[in-house]
Amino acid sequence: MIAALIWDVDGTMAETERDGHRVAFNLAFEALGLAWRWDEEHYGALLCITGGRERLLHDMALRGDAPTLAEERMRLAGELHRRKNAFYVEIVQAGVIPLRAGVRELIDEAAAAGLRQGIATTTSRSNLQALLQRQLGAGWSARFSAVVCGEDVLVKKPDPQVYRLTLQALGLPPLQTVALEDSPAGVEAARLADVPVVVTRSVYFAHDTVLGVLAIGPGLHSHLGWRPDVADGMPNGRVTLNYLQAWHDRMELVSHQQ
Length: 258
Ligand code: XBP
Ligand code: MG
Known about the structure:
By secondary structure, the protein is α/β, with parallel strands linked by helices. The chain has 9 helices and 8 strands. α1 packs across α4, α3 crosses α4 and α4 runs parallel beside α6. It starts with a strand and ends with a strand. Bound molecules: xylulose-1,5-bisphosphate and magnesium ion.
């Protein structure tokens, strides 16, 4: 039996990247008088680097107009990231980034069923707090018995540390849990920690090859379009705990290329 759900945040709980983090990075560039702007396509390519500060440093290494000294780049990345997170908090506090359909329902269902829930994210704690406080209300943290963020790990996803720390905090072995993820880096992190993964495809990772997961589908809002198809005899509608349990029972790891 599944004893806990482990939630990824960006892309899985909410589509935060294109209209949240990306917009906030551009506002930070503007605030510091930089002409840099990340369009939707370029930002999608940059998502192969997890962590906002790491993403900035990666982009600086590729462009000709970034500071040449490593020290100077680090300082600039730190300042941009600080400002970007402040802008991001303003954006999510305005309520323009909703939870993905079916997320709230599954969180509520898992809580009612007595499952433990954890969060394993690469994003900064301030970003997570702002998003979940706005979307789930002031009591959001009572829903989660483990919350591990970017600041809590030495190495970000695809390194498994964030999942290992979440498992420790939950006090459960990996096979009694299921991770909900959207990105190849997130799937790799969970798999390296032996956590079975269910993938909800997000805007930026709609077509990526995904290997060795319990199931993959378009989102928690509908049982349609999922592989493997376990809907026979199940109620139609959103992806419920029964679906997660059915995939977990099979423990048949599927691969998917689109
Ligand atoms: C996804 C990420 C994050 C955000 C930005 O995290 O890669 O780095 O893009 O976060 P996840 P920060 O899918 O694990 O939730 O700027 O706060 O680093
Ligand atoms: Mg994600």
